[in-house]
Amino acid sequence: MRKLLLIYTGGTIGMITNAQTGALESFDFDHLYAHIPELKRFDLDIHVKSFDIPLDSSELGMTHWQELATWISTAYQDFDGFVILHGTDTMAYTASALSFMLQGLQKPIVFTGSQLPIGIIRTDGKENLITAIEIAVATEANGQPILQEVAVYFEYALFRANRSSKISAHQFEAFAAPNYPLLAKAGVQIEWFKERLFRTSLPTLQANLSLSNEVLMWRLFPGMPVHTYEKALHFPEVKILVIETFGAGNAFSNPSFQSALQRFIAAGGKVLNITQCQSGAVKQGAYQTSTFFEKIGVISGEDLTAEAALTKCMYALANVPATELASFLSTPVVGELTRVNS
User: Fold this and answer.
1) Distance between the two ends of the chain, CA-based, in angstroms?
2) b/e 16-51 (16+ beta carbons within 10 angstroms → b)
3) Domain 2-207 has CATH 3.90.1520.10
4) What is the pTM assigned to this prediction?
5) H helical segments located in 25-79
6) Which of 12, 94, 275, 311 is the catalytic position?
7) CATH second-level architecture of 215-329?
8) Is 60 helix (H, G, I), strand (E, B) or coil?
9) pLDDT tens readout for residues 269-293
10) Residues contacting residue 74 through CB under 8 Å, at least 6 positions apart
């Protein structure tokens, strides 16, 4: 019998209506089968682990990512797959972070959640959970897991975790991965697109749990008061600045903005350029307004999502030598970016 570890962090999926008060409350996942009897039809040994206090995903951060990664790395040899129930708002951040922290995966880690509580009749939570479990224990004919990476399953679609973003607060189709196609699609059968799946070159799991939050993000906008933002840009308190630029990596030619970046880089900081657009990639130098970035050594983030860019920077600062940061940030590590400018 295959063994699955189901981890509950909190979020909408774990809510159920109190019959006496009518209020939504977190239900006890130790009684999972009573709430979702369909799970009994799986020939699985399901173990449940939960945060002591279920958290809204807005409350989750680095320490929680490290806790999840520790749980999985510790239990890695004992289970065939892992499903993490997580609030949707920051799911893409947590899932992206784990993809960097747990390299060398040869087993699946599937994140899922819901837009409606599992105690609501029209909930999307039951289907999301049941299918996420089915995906997490799916095997090839030789018994090897089909999925061997961190993924997000939501509303019939399986996405690579570090390519995903939440795109809707009210639609069941809450997630998308605009720059990478689906890994699988759930219909009558689960249709796998196996040529898109990530396979590690590492022989065993490498759990690197250290992270650094010495990262700052600027989302550029017309008329941005650079002098206000610049007050927070001090190396070494900030070691990497992520800038979300216009279109294919473009920015205004504001002298204060350009001087701030030059001073930061000269002091030892790194600047990573990603696009504000939902799809597409940075192409520095393609337009006059981005040639300045090329001259001063700004790193192209290619088609990184904001979630992947931030978590990759947090991982890199804690695990990669300073002399190798630029190369690491611009190179695919776990399938998180496509080299479009090489």
Assistant:
1) 46
2) beeeeeeeeebbebeebeebbeebeeeebebebbbe
3) no
4) 0.94
5) 32-35, 62-75
6) 12
7) 3-Layer(aba) Sandwich (3.40)
8) coil
9) 999 999 999 999 999 888 787 889 9
10) none
